[in-house]
Amino acid sequence: MKDAVVRLADSFDLRSLPPDFYENPFPYYAALRAESPVKRLPDGTFFVTRYDDAEFVYKNPKIFSSDKKQEFGAKYGAAPLFEHHTTSLVFNDPPFHTRVRRLINGALTPRAVAQIQPDLVALVDRLIDTMARKASVDLIEDFAAAIPVEVIGNLLGVPRAERAPLRNWSLAILGALEPRLDPDAASRGNRAVREFAAYLDVLIERRRRTPLGPDSDLISCLLHGGFDGQSLSGAELVHNCIFLLNAGHETTTNLIGNGLVALAQHPEQRDRLIADSSLIKSAVEEFLRYESPNQLGNRITTQPVQLGGVDMPAGTQITLCIGAANRDPEQFTAPDELDIGRLPNRHLAFASGIHQCVGMSVARLEAATAISMLLGRFPSYSLSGAPTRGGRVRFRGFLKIPCKLGG
Ligand code: HEM
């Protein structure tokens, strides 16, 4: 047994994963946490699986930088994907990161998030009504994927009739962040950045010509709100809007889908939630921990440092495994069990520190609303076939969830 665990940890390589990893990465993560928690991979980068180490990295942004120019220069070359990712706040350090983050934070106030709710409830109601007329449904296509695109589209003020291409652009751009990039994925990603940027140029120009007021939507906030008198350049505005549109798409779709599958597979937890609907908040936190939609994060060291007893020189690339940290037995009791009432639940699904997800209250609201409303209407929904996994390492979710809604 011990030998098998050691072998699993020894042979682990993020760029060459065995097929069963995509279905169930957790035995690999457990082996790494136990045997090699700060694991040097064949390409010289490090893979971090323990909660305390991951949190330490997130909390020390001066030592562990988010700036990806070096890494993405090598990965993408001088291509649109390089320009896009290296201009997004998430892949930058202060002061640029602080400037953009304050603008976005200013737009996503608790009041602004609460204002999302009525439209969200109406949308979820409509989706459920439409599904109720079908014999069998796909909980991704018919439900989970249809929600975030509308919510983020509303937040950014993208006219409804123009939203159709957003999801595929977003999937193509985020797909190119996978640890291994094949030429097809790179060209799909580059084309998506070009088309998305061209679309946003038009939308932003419209907003400049006909201003809607600084608080009306996120684009207007970014356009008008000059923190310290410094507003964003045209390219900075476009790329951070693309990032915002992308950041909330696939991740939130996956959170809703992962939550619904987890409940279908754990009937006792589903019954618990039906019996006490006030558990929905802690249930969403548990779905975030148990099947974290975003499994990986990345940083690069700015100085020599020791992490988990391992010495690293400056310029070392690190992958933080959120999915592994969120199953760390040192942090969570019975981490491989789904417990919708788990407290405390200090998971890292939204990261931690200065880059902690700026849209987490939006994502939480979407998931709580979607899951509780579906369960309210169809408490005995069931899977009508095996759900199809997304086949990605960074973003964990399903492509299809065939489902019978029941009476
Ligand atoms: C379940 C859904 C979501 C998950 C799991 C998630 C996860 C994350 C994580 C892990 C980070 C930190 C990345 C890093 O520093 O390495 C992040 C950052 C971010 N997220 Fe989310 N996210 C979700 C939904 C959203 C939504 C709905 C929005 C927008 C409305 C959003 C906007 C952002 C932004 C702007 C950042 C960058 C923050 C910064 O660099 O300071 N996210 N997210």
Key terms:
alpha+beta; 407 residues; globular; 20 helices; 5-stranded mixed sheet; binds protoporphyrin IX containing FE
- Strand content is 5-15%
Which structural class do you get from the secondary structure elements?
alpha+beta
The tally of strands reads 12
The coarse overall form would be globular
Please tell me how large the radius of gyration is.
21 Å
Report the uncertain regions.
none
Percentage of residues assigned to helices: 40-55%
End-to-end separation: 46 Å
Q: How confident overall, as mean pLDDT?
A: 94
By DSSP (H or I, 4+ residues per run), the number of helices equals 20
List the ligand species.
protoporphyrin IX containing FE
Major beta sheet, specifics? Answer: 5 strands, mixed
Sheet with the most strands: spatial strand order? 1-2-8-5-3
